[in-house]
Amino acid sequence: MAVEAVEHLVGLGPFCERMPSALLLLSPCRLKGGNFGTIFRIRSHLEKHGYNCHLWDPQNVEKCGGINVLLNQYKIDLVLGIHAYHAGRFMKDSNVPYILILGGTDVNEFSKEEKYQKVMTAAIYKARYVVAFSESLQSRALSLWPQLSLEWHEENSRIFLVIIGHVADDSYFRNDFEPALNRCKGVVHIPGLSTACAHASMQQVFALVNSSQSEGMSLAILEAMKMKLPVLARDIPGNSSIIQDGRNGLLFSTPEEFREKASALMQNPLQRQHLVTQAEEFIASHHNIEQEDAAYQKLIVSCQFPTGPAVNGYS
Question: Is 186 exposed, middle or buried (CB count within 10 Å of its CB: 0-12, 13-18, 19+)?
Answer without folding.
Answer: middle
